[in-house]
Every structure is written in structure tokens, then in C-alpha cells.
Write a structure and sequence with these properties.
Blueprint (H helix, E strand, L loop, with lengths): L1 E9 L8 E7 L6 H11 L4 E6 L5 E7 L2 E3 L3 H14 L5 E5 L5 E7 L2 E7 L4 E2 L3 H8 L5 E4 L3 E5 L3 H5 L5 H4 L6 E7 L5 E6 L14 H13 L3 E6 L5 E8 L2 E6 L1 E10 L4
Parallel strand pairs: 2-3, 4-6, 11-12, 13-14
Antiparallel strand pairs: 1-2, 1-17, 3-4, 4-5, 6-7, 7-8, 8-16, 9-10, 10-11, 12-13, 14-15, 15-16
Length: 264
């Protein structure tokens, strides 16, 4: 079986920036071990996989080298980039996920935005131990299922953090998020997730499910521009809508080709 493969730069318009992700487009579903093997062969932490499902819908699944994966924001955006490019004039796409729910993506000018449920953080007093792990004590701390958040006063403080990855890995969440008001953007962010195999995440969409409602309330606006201060850097654009958030960014195909897969 032949399958198309694309590597897509997400949350950036130029190569070597943003967060790249591989997307595999299949003519039909194949066994999960094959897809995990593809992820391992590509050395991809989260591989997005597309195929045509019943009723003309598009199935979207995610795989790591270890097996099925719950998904990631950048991989979902990459899948939307590939699927919308294959639909001449298409403006929206609704993916069917493994649990039967849908994830919607739409063109938004020169960007693509994906709809996500909010994941609001709640205040928690962890300033001292987050400060010890990140190298500077935040002025406020939050917790959500995805991770802890340390809020700082300005972007320089976030940019100059020198985190202790061993200390960060001891926390009972997958990620530690540092954020502050921005200068050339509304907010800035860095995300450290050694437990998830990412000492520093190049660009993290999931963190904005936590940050978007926090900053929207604090800045009294529903549209936010976020700048990720990682080595690669990236820009995310968030818009609060009802009980969800549209998280968007620019995308660009970096690589495309064909993979030969076993029939079973």
C-alpha cells in the first residue's frame, strides 16, 4: 500500500521555526502496530494519520512509536493543513476522532484555526517549588490537568528562565508552563515537559486551552496573540468562543512524499 506523507511546519510561516509534524494520508485504515512503526521510523513523537471514513468523513488518529496517542495541538493543525489543501476551495473540515467526537478546523485568513474545549486552570499555591524548578519565582501559580502554570511579570523573566529538568520531572503533571504579558504580542509562553519527552516544547497549542481563558479575563479581550519563546519560536492566535477556544497559526508544507506500507 502506498501512503502520502507530509511534514508541515505549524504556528510559523517559515521552515526551521514553529513546531513541525508528520501527517500520513492513507487510502484506508491499517493496523495500529504498522502506524506506530511508521512513527518510530520517522522519529516522530506524535504522528497524525488521516483516512476516509464512512459517510464521506475524515478520520483522524494519532500514533507515537509506543502506540496510539491522544493527540497534540500542532499535529492536529498539521492534519488540517494537509486536508484543507486537498479540498480545492475548502474552508472547513471536521475530523472524526477515535472516541467518535469531532474536531473542527477552518481557514482564518492566512492561518488555520482548530476548535478546542477550554481547560481552565485553578489557583494553587506552588510559587516556591515552581520557582525552584524554573529558576525564578512566579507571582501567581495555577494548575490544570495538563500541567502547572507560573505567571511572571514581563517577557524578559520568561525568556531568561533556566529550568531544572530533573526538578520539573518530579511534578505530578506532564508540563510546566511559564507565561507573562508580552511586548510585541499579548502574551509570551514557554513550556517544559521532560516527562513527555520534550525538555522544552517548540510550540504548544494545548497549553493555550489553559492560558486563553486566564489571559482573556485578565486582559479583558477574547482575541489573543501568543508568542512562544522557544529556540524555534512560534506564534499562536486564540479566540474564545462560548465554552471553547479557536487556536490558530500559519502553516507551511516542508516535505512531502510517498511511503510504501505493508498490506497487513
Amino acid at each position: 500500500m502506498q501512503a502520502r506523507v507530509h511534514q508541515v511546519v505549524t504556528f510559523a510561516s517559515e521552515p526551521f521555526h514553529g513546531n513541525p509534524a508528520f501527517v500520513l494520508s492513507l487510502p484506508r485504515a491499517v493496523p495500529e502496530p504498522v502506524l506506530s512503526a511508521v512513527a518510530a521510523e520517522l522519529r516522530e513523537g506524535v504522528l497524525a494519520v488521516l483516512w476516509s471514513a464512512e459517510g464521506g468523513q475524515t478520520a483522524l488518529r494519532f500514533f507515537s512509536p509506543e502506540g496510539a496517542h491522544s493527540g497534540a495541538g500542532h499535529a492536529t493543525l498539521a492534519a488540517a493543513h494537509v486536508e484543507l489543501a486537498q479540498r480545492a476551495g475548502g474552508e472547513t473540515v471536521a475530523f472524526v476522532l477515535a472516541d467518535g467526537t469531532q474536531r473542527t478546523a477552518a481557514r482564518d485568513g492566512d492561518r488555520i484555526a482548530v476548535s478546542w474545549p477550554l481547560m481552565p486552570g485553578v489557583p494553587v499555591e506552588r510559587r516556591q517549588d515552581l520557582g525552584a524548578a524554573l529558576g525564578r519565582e512566579p507571582i501567581e501559580t495555577l494548575v490544570a490537568p495538563f500541567g502547572y502554570v507560573g505567571v511572571y511579570g514581563n517577557p524578559v523573566e520568561v525568556r531568561e528562565l533556566r529550568p531544572d529538568m530533573t526538578a520539573i520531572a518530579r511534578f505530578d503533571r506532564g508540563a510546566i508552563i511559564a507565561t507573562a504579558p508580552g511586548d510585541s504580542s499579548d502574551i509570551v509562553i514557554r513550556v517544559f515537559a521532560p516527562k513527555l519527552g520534550l525538555p522544552e516544547d517548540p510550540v504548544c497549542g494545548t497549553a493555550h486551552r489553559i492560558l486563553a481563558p486566564y489571559w482573556a479575563a485578565r486582559l479583558k479581550r477574547d482575541d489573543l496573540h501568543s508568542r512562544q519563546l522557544s529556540a524555534r519560536g512560534g506564534d499562536l492566535y486564540c479566540r474564545i468562543e462560548d465554552d471553547g477556544v479557536m487556536i490558530g497559526g500559519q502553516t507551511r508544507t516542508f516535505l512531502q512524499g510517498v511511503i510504501e506500507l505493508p498490506d497487513r
